[in-house]
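Structure ticket #2291
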Amino acid sequence: MNERLRQLERHLKQENPVLLEVVGSFRELDRISRSLGFLGKNESLAARVPWWPLIAVLGTYSSGKSTFINSYLDYPLQSTGNQAVDDKFTVMCFSGEGMVRTLPGLSLDADPRFPFYQIGESIDEVATGEGGRIDAYLQLKTCPSEKLRGKILIDSPGFDADAQRTSTLRITDHIIHLSDLVLVFFDARHPEAGSMHDTLEHLVGSTISRHDSSKFLYVLNQIDTTAREDNPEQVFAAWQRALAQHGLTAGRCYSIYDTGAAVPIDDPQKRSRFEGKRDADLAAIYQRIDEVGVERAYRIVGMLEHTARMLEDDLVPRVQGFMQRWRQRVLWLDGLMLALLAAVVLGLGVGTDLLAGVSLSAMQSDPVTTGIVAAVVLVLLGYGHFRIRNWAAGQVIRKTLAEIPETSRHAGYARAFRRNTQWWRTIFAKNPLGWSGRTARKLERLVGVADIYVQKLNDRYANPSGKGAAVETTAPEPGDTSAFAPAQTAGTGESVAAGDAPEPAREKEAG
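Resolution: structure written out below.
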C-alpha cells in the first residue's frame, strides 16, 4: 500500500500539486483510522478514492445512452438499438492502441485502480453467490478516443426489472457514490411515469436529498420524435411533472437528440428551432463533462473532510455506544452465571451435606487443597466470563451494525468494535482504543487543513485574488504508473498495472 501511495504521489506531482498534499493528509487519517480499528494494517482510505474523474451514464432501456456516448467520443464504441443491447455495466477508459478491447469483469473487481475493486463482496451481501459471477455484471472496454484521456466513463444497463435487479441496483449505488457526474437518461418517446417508474424511484427519489445532488443531470433524449406533432414543450413539461412527483423540483434538465439517428424535420424553421435547443443543451452537458477534473479535485478534498468528521462524529460515538451495550450485557450475564453457580453449590450443600465439613480452620489446615480448589473455581469463572464476553460482543455487533445504513462501512465498524473487546481490555473502559483528546485535535486539524486545500483549489481554478493568470485545467495524461488510475506504457499504448502487477489477459472485441 505504501508503494501504491508513492506512485500516486508521483502522478499527482505533475497533475495537481494540491492533491499531492491531500495524499499526505490521507496518510495521517489512515494512522488515526488504524488506531481506532476502522482500517486494517494494509488498508488506506486513499485507496477508496477514485483519483480519476468518473462520469456515469444511467437510465432506462432504449433511452439513447449508447448513442450519446458514441457521439461524445466520436467513436462507435457502444452497440446501439431500440431494444436492450447490453446487460452489463461497461467501464470505458483510454487506450493508445488504436483499437477496442473488451476485458472481463474480473479485470475491474481485482484491480484497486478502478472504481469496482472488490465489488463482488458488495454484490454477495445482497445476492448470495452472485459476487462470483462478476463477469455477468461488469466489463472493461479500452478506446482510442482522445475524449477519454484522463477520464473513466461508465455505461449502465437499463433499469427494467430483470433477474439481476438487486445486484444491478447495488452496483448502481456504488457508481453513484463514486461518480463526479451522473447523467440520467429518459426516452422522450415514452415520457410518461409508467415506463420510467423504476428509474424515477431509484435515481430520482433516492438522490434529491444527497449533499452532492448537483452532480446529477437529467436528460430527456430523442426529443426529435416530437417534431411531427411539434409539441416538445408539452412533452418536456410532462416529463418534468413526473420528476416533480418524485420530489425533484429543482435540478438541471436537458432535452437532446442525436443528429445521425434523428427523425427528418423538413420544415427549416422547425428544424432550426430543434437544432438550436439541442446544440445549447449538448454544449452545456459537454461543458460539465469537461469540468469533472476540477470537480474531482474538490470532491477528493471534500471526502477528506467528510471522513475526518465521520470518525469523530459517527464512528467514535457508535463504538462508545457499543461498549456500553456490551458492558451491560456482560455484567448481566456474569451476574446470572454467579447466581446459578451459587445456587448449584448451595443446592449440593443442603442436599448432600457436602459443605458440612468446610470451615475456615479446615481450609487453613490444608492450604494446598484449598488453593487448588480456589484456582479451579477461578479458572472456571474466568473461562465463563470470557466466553460471555465473546458471545455478547457478537450479539451486540450484529445489532449495532444493523443500525448503520452505510453497508460499505460495516467491515470497518465491526473491526473497531472487536478491537475494543480484546481479552486484555477491561469492560469498564470509557473511551475506545486509540481515542483521546490528542486524537480529537488531530481530526480537527485535518478538517481545518481541508478548508485550506479548498482555498488553494480556488486560487488555482477560480483565481479570486486576480493575481496572475488562472491555471488552465486539462485532463490528466494517463501515461504514468499511478496506483489508482489506468496507465499506458510509453510507445506501445498497452495498459499496464501499477508497479510490477501483471497485465490482465485480453480479448479482441467480437465483431
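Closing remark: The first strand starts at residue 54 and ends at 59.
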